[in-house]
Amino acid sequence: MKLVIIGGLSGGMTVASQFRRLDKESEIIVYDKNPYVSFANCGLPYYLSREVAKREDLIARTPNQLNDQGITVHTEHEVISVNDQENYVTVKNLQTGETFNDYYDKLVVSPGGEARTLDTVKDAKQSFIFQHLHHLDQMDAYISENDVKHAVVIGTGFIGLEVTEQLKKRGLNVTVIQHNDKVYSTLEQHFTEHIKQTFDEQDIHLMLNTTPKSLDGTTLTLDNDETIDAELIVQAIGILPRTQFLESSNIVLDNGFIPIDEYGLTNIDNVYAIGDAVETNYQHVPNKKVSVALAWPAHRLAYVIANHLAEKNNHKHDGLLSVSILRFFDITVGSMGLSLEDLEGEDYIIVEQTQNNKAGYMPDATPLSMRIYVDTHTRKILRASGVGKNGLDKRLDILSTLTRLGGTVDDLIDVEVSYAPPFSSPKDIINMLGYKTIGKLK
Amino acid sequence: MKLVIIGGLSGGMTVASQFRRLDKESEIIVYDKNPYVSFANCGLPYYLSREVAKREDLIARTPNQLNDQGITVHTEHEVISVNDQENYVTVKNLQTGETFNDYYDKLVVSPGGEARTLDTVKDAKQSFIFQHLHHLDQMDAYISENDVKHAVVIGTGFIGLEVTEQLKKRGLNVTVIQHNDKVYSTLEQHFTEHIKQTFDEQDIHLMLNTTPKSLDGTTLTLDNDETIDAELIVQAIGILPRTQFLESSNIVLDNGFIPIDEYGLTNIDNVYAIGDAVETNYQHVPNKKVSVALAWPAHRLAYVIANHLAEKNNHKHDGLLSVSILRFFDITVGSMGLSLEDLEGEDYIIVEQTQNNKAGYMPDATPLSMRIYVDTHTRKILRASGVGKNGLDKRLDILSTLTRLGGTVDDLIDVEVSYAPPFSSPKDIINMLGYKTIGKLK
């Protein structure tokens, strides 16, 4: 059997190595348009400030290691079309310009996303996107070689915030520009006040409701005619699924995303899809679709696809809760479940609780604020979110586990947290959210 | 209605205040044999080193606050017998010696445990137990007034370890004595190697397989004839349910513990029991009995009892998972589910995993070791345990939530943890335990 994989990061490469463990015989070929594969995407920002001290720590497996595993990788090879009738992909060698066809028995499509850019700035030599290892390398070298002192980050999504934090920690002055008045718009805006406060504390200049109008050298003029010093510009305005090349095929797309079934299969019976470009459903609200561009879902689906390819166990993918979390300096923000937009049409009450993350008499206790959106009919949690300095991650994990297992707010009060004063409270915020909700719902 | 409560700590006092919120009319009387009520038991050790800086931070509610709430508290009043036929308790005023009867409509029994003592040392002026606020006060004053430099802690349960840590942090030399070769015997002994290593690192003298033979002044002679300097002796060798006074009644006891039903009722229909002296069942293995002397279960059961007393909601207590956790200097140990002894007769496999608590390239990633005991028939987790510097608490919380909701190891691989490099891994230890177990079981 010959397996061709398009894309050599979390999704595609994890399928490759998991499948190789289950099947020693089949041929595995990976094409990736970028110069590097198998690196830790999520870790890239942390090298900017050298919080991650060594670049090589970001490499999961080297080309040699992959080769030793029996995985053939072709970097800087872009798959430009798929012929699912005759089972081949057309590949362009980006170094030589030549194209060729490669036949497959099974195909895994893991193309990821394409970072969006801004016409006003994208062609300037100091403009970068931040998505792949070579982007990090380029930006890192540019900062050093040009002794950059002032950076502009456009966008306040998680990449924008992570890069902002890291550039600041590297010693740069940073200005952050956001086109509307919403910082980290996936979170409730009253929670993001903590992020705005952190901008102030860290002396980072946040400019809301504005966009770049023109760039002249290192002078960036905004649409309100203010000018700012922009020796470095990071465009962090989101990603789009990189699936245009699939329009050559019969693979169904939905707004550019690839719908998949419970085994990761597309509508074509020997073509799987994985990673940032796939569309699945919320596990707890199966009639609503969701795309989650994070590493965790890619790793889970890789297991399902690898086992299905190898005809081993039939573990099924049953959707995602879309848990996400972000550290921004000393605060953490995160959420689980339906996005704010996807709450539309649901019938819910909101319950919010603020209390210390551990026994209040402990010297390092800090406040944690959480909110849950509870379906008034099923009493299940549709969404949870929060902010705090410590301990948000574990409460989201509890709510994610409870929700995945079909639990309701009535179960919340009985969630037995591991309690000792350094860790939690006998009435943990999770239990209190349960008490409060039951009081409101009954 | 007149409610009498025996015991004014986590169990009894939480019932009192929760019931008061639900019922403004009834009379609530609390008897406690000790001088203080409504303090944070679990926090007491941390005042020894002034990690908790102010003694008043350990007081949950003062007698005046309780009085304002309409809760009448009699401290240093010991209930010496219960007449459940005629519905009265006999109370001894420990200050005057007089006894009297007090009638109740409903009775809540929350007597807690009695710390065990050692005949060899218990009568010495430098010997203490560590259970109540006045014990802390006495020991704290004794250390200061006598400028104590050398302390001996007998026992390596969680009180022994917490007090050892705190005395060391206060600057004392500490010797710890354990009668057998097991440190913190509720945990797997290979995990407790980390505790032993911490003893070494902290320069605390650990003496195993020995017991005190005689005490002469501050010289403690052990059964191996070694002598050690014992200016302060802490007896931390466990607790027994303080239920002897109930032998006057028809309340059923089981090995000294009070069995309760799903509403916290004893066998007598107007007598409830709560706290360290009750016996319930494991939630996930209902045919096995368990007693958990911790604050978390007391707070949960208090809600059930208060609501049942007030004839409000019928939330039921359905047993405990017996989650426990302990910080000892920079390490954390903990467990969930059946005790090592209670595993007997179960049919299980053991799966263990050691990996970093977060993305390995993050500078503060530290190893975490966890073990799960999985029922080979039901595929449910009977017990989990582990050790690590950080992040054990949240993994135990996940396993506790999953187990309470009836989840199996097949659900483990899909537990959607909140992932970003500062918090976890795309293949979190929880997910890895799932993969490993499925591989072993199938």
Give a verbal description of the structure.
- The structure is a homodimer of 442-residue chains.
- The first copy, chain A, is of the alpha/beta class.
- Chain A folds into three domains: 2-113 and 240-309, 3-Layer(bba) Sandwich (FAD/NAD(P)-binding domain), CATH 3.50.50.60; 117-235, FAD/NAD(P)-binding domain; 335-441, FAD/NAD-linked reductase, C-terminal dimerisation domain (Enolase-like, domain 1, 2-Layer Sandwich).
- Chain A is built from ten helices and 26 strands.
- The first copy, chain A, has helices at residues 10-22, 45-48, 63-68, 133-145, 158-170, 189-201, 295-309, 392-404, 409-412, 429-441, and strands at residues 2-6, 27-31, 72-74, 77-83, 88-93, 99-103, 106-109, 113-115, 127-129, 150-154, 173-177, 205-207, 212-216, 219-222, 227-229, 232-235, 239-241, 258-259, 271-273, 278-281, 289-290, 324-328, 331-337, 348-356, 367-375, 381-388.
- A five-stranded parallel beta sheet of chain A has the order 3-2-1-7-19.
- In chain A, strand 14 (219-222) and strand 15 form a beta hairpin.
- Chain A is globular, with a radius of gyration of 23 Å.
- The model of chain A has no long low-confidence stretch (mean pLDDT 97).
- Chains A and B meet through helix 7, strand 22, strand 23, helix 8 and helix 10 of A and helix 7, strand 22, strand 23, helix 8 and helix 10 of B.
- Chains A, B: Its cofactor is FAD.
- Chains A, B: Its EC number is 1.8.1.14.
- Chains A, B: Residues 326-424 form the Pyridine nucleotide-disulphide oxidoreductase dimerisation domain.
